[in-house]
Amino acid sequence: MTTVRRVLGLHEHLSVVDVVLAILRVVVVLFVIAGVYATISKGTFTLDEWGSLAVGGLALGAVYALLALGYTLVYGILFMINFAHGDVFMTGAYTAYFAAAAMAKSGFLAQNEVLAFIIVLLISSGVAALVAVVLERVAYRPLRNAPRLVPLITAIGASLFLENTFRGLYGAGVKAYPTWQMFQGSIILFGIEITYARIVVVFGAIAMMLGLYWFVERTRTGRAMRAVSDNKDVAAMMGIDVDRVILTTFAIGGLLAGAAGILYTLIFNQVGYFMGFVPGIKAFTAAVLGGIGNIVGAMLGGLLLGVLESVGPYLLLDGFNIPSVNQLKDVVAFLVLVLVLIFRPSGILGRKENT
Fold it and tell me: What's the gap between Cα 340 and its chain centre?
């Protein structure tokens, strides 16, 4: 073991666990280098095709980033993981589908696409915000002073409750959103074909993320949120209504989740009662990757995870002639979570939590 320490450049006082982690780091790095080299040498994809994969991943990552902001806002104030957040995302998009379908059937959507899209976006965001607020008031507030494991279990229960409730309300089948003609078509940029829908998703998400950052940093409510996040008791003594601030935080997270749901339908064009589970878990992964509790980290983590999920399976595995690597994108996403938790639990921009 001493020889291994010397080879890896480790100090003598490090434990066996540290040595094992160091070896694992080396193995991961070597695997990544070997996979990238083998794929590039194989030459299956052109530079334009790699660019197209990256753009698609960026659009999906923008959705993850909006969802990740909900996780990171709640964690930053309550130090709890709201695992029902992915299902809050589902409630808005799924409810707004019926408004979109009704407008499409009546012809209103075809005649007033911009207005119809705004209406659908407002309905989705409003419903998701309302559900998030009800969750906080009914499920989480009574458990605010309970051990951390109790709200976590409650969040999982709330997730299952929302899924099965909306399955009963709206049905178990998958429903296709009406087509938005104004988002059809594409442009060619540096040889890469980019659809209008992906452009709207990326820039819409970035605009909302920047808006949230400005709100938290520059407004009075944002300052109150930061104060409550730092110390609830001191914030209360300074006259801040802690309950109102926490409720506002859940509402903002819900608004962003509802908007993310509509952007998600621009990519996949369908909704269902189970649509929020996997994106919710991946958004949590993005929040951890960026540094949970850090708004900028959540944005960066979401965008990075989307690109990794889109490009990673091909870049790392195609060179080894593994069949159907596109079906392994979820493996890449969750592998990122495991590696981040092992090597840097605080995330890219996060800080270590005091214990």
Answer: 15
How many angstroms separate the CA atoms of 87 and 70, rounded?
12
Can you give the CATH number for the domain in which 219 is found? 1.10.3470
pTM of the predicted structure, to 2 decimals: 0.89
CB atoms within 10 A of CB 48: 13
Helix (H) or strand (E) holding 187: strand 186-189
Contacts of 322 by beta carbon, 8 Å cutoff, 6+ apart = 328
Q: What tens-digit pLDDT sequence spans the chain (355 residues)?
A: 455 445 445 555 566 767 777 788 788 788 888 888 888 888 778 888 888 889 999 999 999 999 999 999 999 888 888 999 999 999 999 999 999 999 999 999 999 999 999 999 999 999 999 999 999 999 999 988 888 889 989 999 999 999 999 999 999 989 999 999 999 988 988 888 889 999 999 999 999 999 999 999 999 999 999 999 888 889 998 899 999 999 999 999 999 999 999 999 999 999 999 999 999 999 998 998 898 888 899 999 999 999 989 988 888 888 777 777 878 888 877 887 788 877 888 888 875 554 4
Amino acid of residue 248: T
What range does the domain containing 85 cover?
20-343
**Please, which residues have CB within 8 angstroms of residue 131's CB and are 6 or more apart in sequence?**
88, 91, 92, 162, 254
Rounded CA-CA distance 251/135 in Å is 10
Whether residue 37 is contained in a domain is answered as yes
Phi/psi for 341 (5° steps) reads -65, -30
**Distance in angstroms (rounded) separating the CA atoms of residues 327 and 318:** 12
Q: What is the C-alpha to C-alpha distance for residues 277 and 348, in angstroms, rounded to an integer?
A: 24
Say if 202 falls within a structural domain: yes
Helices 196-218/47-78 angle, 10° precision? 30
Angle at alpha carbon of residue 21, lines to 19 and 26, rounded to 5°: 95
In a domain, residue 277? The reply is yes
Q: How far apart are the C-alpha atoms of 89 and 87, rounded to whole Å?
A: 5
- Assigned domain for 317 exists: yes
Residues of the chain by 3-state class (helix, strand, coil), percent to 5: 75, 5, 20
Length of the chain: 355
Number of independent structural domains in the chain: 1
Do residues 1 and 16 touch, judged by C-beta distance below 8 A? yes
